[in-house]
Amino acid sequence: MIRVGIAASTFLASLLLIAPLSVSQLAIAQSETYTPGQKIDKEYATFARQFLDSHCVDCHGATEPEGGLSLNDLGPVDEVNAGTWEAVWAQVTLKEMPPPEMDQPAVVQRLQFSDWIADELSHVMREQGGFHAPQDPEKGNFVDHQLLFGPLPDGIKLKPTASPARLWRVTPQEHITRLNELINTEPEYDPEKPGLRTHGDVVPTNHGGELKLYFGTDRIIYWQGGTVAYATAVKSVPAVLSTARAHGLENYPDFYTVNSAEATQILSIAEDILRYMAEGPLSIAEPYQISDDIRSVRNRMKGDIRGLPTSIVYSTQVVRPLTPVYDLMSEEGVDDQRLQAAVDYLFEALTFRPPTEKESLQYLTIAKQSIETLGKDEGAILGLSPIFLDRDALFRPELAKAGSPDQYGRVMLQDWELGLAVNHALRYIKPDEQLHKAIVEGRMRTRDDVKREVERMLADDSIRKPRILQFFRDYFDYDRGGYICKDSRALAATGVSNRGTAHYNAMFDATASTDRLIELVLAEDKDVLKQLLTTNKVVATKADNVYFGRRHSKEETRASIAAAKQAEQEALKTETDALENAQQQLAELKASLEENAEPDDAQQKDLKAHQQAVIKAKNKLDAATKKWKEKTFNHNVAEVDLTGPELFARVSRRSFGKGSMQPERILAEAPEGQRLGILTHPAWLVSHSDAMDNHAIRRGRWIRERLLGGGIPDVPITVDAMLPDEPDKTLRERMRVTTETYCWTCHEKMDPLGLPFEMFNHAGLFRETEQDKPVDTTGAIIDSGDPNLDGEVANAIEMIERIAESERAEQVFVRHAFRFWMGRNETLNDAPVLQEAHRAYKENGGSMNALIVSLLTSDAFLYRSHSAH
Amino acid sequence: MLNRRMMLQGMATGVGAALGTSLVPGNLLAATGSQTTPKRIIFFMQNQGFDPRTCIPEGMKRSGSLAKVKLPEPISPLEPYKDRLHIINGLHGLHTSPSHSAFFGALGGYRGSDGVPPAGATIDYELSKILPQTLLPHLCIGMDSMENMSTKPTIATLSASGAGQPIFMHSNPNHLYQMLYGGIASGDIRRRHEARSNIFNQIEQLAAAEGKALPIADQRRYGQYVQGFKDVNGLRDRLDSVADRLRDFAPEVDSRYTSPEFETDWHDALLDLGISALTSGITNTLTIGSGRGEIFGAWKGLGVEQQGHNLGHMDQPGNPIWIKIRQYNSRMLVRIMEELESIPEGSGTMMDHTLIVYTSNNADRQHTSGANWPVMLLGNFDGAFKTGCFTQLDGKRPINALYASLLCAAGQSCDRFNMNEKIAQKFDNSIGPLKEVLA
Lengths: 869, 439
Hints:
Largest interface: A-B, 87 and 81 residues
Number of helices of chain A: 34
Largest sheet of chain A: 3 strands, mixed
Largest sheet of chain B: 8 strands, mixed
Low-confidence stretches of chain B: 1-35
Low-confidence stretches of chain A: 1-30
Radius of gyration of chain B: 21 Å
Oligomer: heterodimer
């Protein structure tokens, strides 16, 4: 659903501010030093009320207030008026209010007012879950870009930055990847085929977009039935940790916990995993099913057993990791040493660090008690499963308890915490040998230590770094296409197939393709953002010949149908003529023979040959007719012929039998003039579409926030405006409702940036017409913060080209990278870190590696503070 | 901090929650001081489709009373109960992609397919939240072939508590019994229950110890994690404290559990457990997946030798195999009604406050567009639904409208369930509950 509302605070839109700051206020603003993050020790009456009176109530007064919103009687922050204060906070923080033509509060005064509201809201709303907007990544841009990257005005004093000490819950994907390490052996990195999924890569979602852990699929050599039968018969468990965010940064430390349902499910899955670690496919199959002799097993399969676990044959080759859990369970009896080894192994495999003696003993005791009660077979499995619920198996601690505070009260992470923080910044599996050694040997304690390890890992392609790719997924949001439910008829109208799950499969494939394209750009590591925005390269499957194609106009479709018909007629004409000719010759021969009473042998032979010729010609015509009938044409699309060298993309384990995702791809070039960079690829376009059409507002919002660094206030809950349902109108025409004054204050920031993408339809195909008229692809960059960028654009390509050259877009990109790797929004105190990261990126030719090294060696990454940030 | 109800809600989606207690329907709720009239709902989802010709009485083309007509053979066991039956034909699920199965989309009213994660909470979960509170608001059981139930005793295909949050269903009656009644069991079940209890107690202790001295911002979040274990353990303790009363409801563990001859032995045992969870007041919402939401399933115990997928390729009307399966379903429905009717509640019986929703996760047949999605309701849910009748709708309203009706009947106003206005413009020609089915 497209909502076209605006923030409540835009009621303030036409606020006319006339009262200049009083002398006393100016004096306060000018004399005070503002340190970001420090509590604003001010009162409503003497500070906030004065701000409102000076800057707001002339328009939002008691009588006929602008937008119907009066701030005249807005009292101290309380639970009832919290919504209004939140709107005021957003507008003032974003510098939307006071309007630009009016006198502005001093920078420090604005910052103080904003912080004061946030503090008050946090306090008042604590029983209702608190006020978290300043920590929400979608509000990250609310921090003034100019203050972060430009000179600071007098009166602002930054303090050395640090991130808060914290627990960081693992993501579902990290969790599944961690569990996968216990039961599946992933192939080692092959430099000849760098795109293929390999050890250290993340466990990807499956053919339907579901994240699952698969058991034993690498040993399946036969199954009865088709794709669905396979999917039903194999053992798999879905991810149990939940996430709620579909777009944007997915995992700040303070987003999630683990609820009791998830915990109990993890315990149950743990038992399945432990059993598989011990017994392999025997834990999910009958002994006779494990054989290299498929025929012998098939002989035991009685009747139709499709979809049953017994319909599978597993090879005898052991491919899973054989671990101390296997050693423990494969021997008779219980050996304390082996039990201890199993405990320690599992602990490190699940938490990525060795257990302390105390931890080891605790889990050993539990396992022993369980074995005592239930016997070894059942007791060991149950008794080892609690390790899967250890705090550090589900949360990564950055508590910084070991070090001493510096003069600013910050403590630097060290040893395991620092090592695991660095590891987590790049990887989903446990530290590699060298990092492990560095941690154990006390060489993970300094900035240089971090630099050494990060640079080493970045330089080594065999060390997979899925977190970097995850950043690009979070930043670009190109991985949602397969989850956008399409109306079947609307989908067919785009020109792509709407049969079965073809489109959704194509979108999941497109996500994997885009992953690979990004990796290729990262491998070059030059002007990374610009390259991603402007590359003409495409990683493609066969289906992309359609998706990167051009939607025919109605006339072209008609012409295509006519041309196909003509081609058919021409193709068949040859065969028809041949048949008619053969029939004619036969008829003539027959007529001539009829004149002779007794045809001789030669004549008989000739007759037979002519008869054969007729049959042959008829067969040829039948075959050609059949061939044409079976030939499928997509008259709606001018397909492109994407060609290029072969490469691979990372896809799920076999999840759907022969219908599983395939890794084969080609590296091609997109049609010139139609595409430019991944924002013009179907993966991104469909991710920013809805069931029926393009989502110009969401696309525009993406450009505004992720490239221009602007902020959009929340849509107020009172607004539920819909675009009119007018099937004969274009999206642009239907979006006229957003241009009403009430809405435009916000929509001006999004719509003109999203509408240039109307050069593509909602399946991502290039188009020149819409509703049988030339498509309008114009738009504009308004109030971007960089006057060089502002102005009209003819289409998305022109807009992208302009922004790709912008330093501001680079800086905004750096801000997002900061958020991803620090797990929090930036504050003004982080300005030096951001500036340095941008400098590193720029001076190294747009190097992502340089950017990452800079961020991971920054104070924001290394230091923790025990007070709230 | 999550409140207790939310915690219980969370637990309901757990697989091996070492449950432990119960507030029994009227009786256990009374223990909590609640004055709310208990209500409960059961969803019975048979896979492979529900052909309307197997439930609509012959010759019945328009809406009307069932009083003077004879129910078709496949649902003939319901004949004595047709005064509480409501057959609904003409809902649709075109937007759910139900061919083979809509999976989570069947109860969610959104697009589903094999391998597609849930796009939102399903109706059974939503109802479990608003019905008068029970110990475990939501229980899901799944019936399948013996092999599948043994090797994959918990799967999640039908119910969800939110987008990307599947709820697992239980298919091994031994595990489910241990979870529900471990505290009153003896022998092996008791030992397992105690071992598991011990594990959970120790996990709670370890988790609590690891939560000490966390930063303030994390204490609340991590506290929820620890609280989850406290609730699991607390519930178990409370279950133990009402063990005597639970004994009155817990089914007897017999050879069907430990040495089943056919998968239907486990199906029956699972049904017993599901019914007991309702009658004992452990749960207010029971979801039964016969065929577990997928396109397979087995009923060898009924003499059906064919595997699930082939069954879907058969025409259902007049088919002896489908008559057997549907009659088996119907007998299960009768058992639920009889059991609930045998227990007094308020001025009537439990059944008076109950609704059974019977349908398929495949709409009307296996390979379907979802243009028609037949449903049978049994019971009137405290007088909220019409009974003893057949309603023919015009195919313009989606199953979401039925789900909105259920929410309304449960006391929560709802114009549309899981359907935004834009989709509704295409798939729903009206708004609000189905007035044709509400009393």
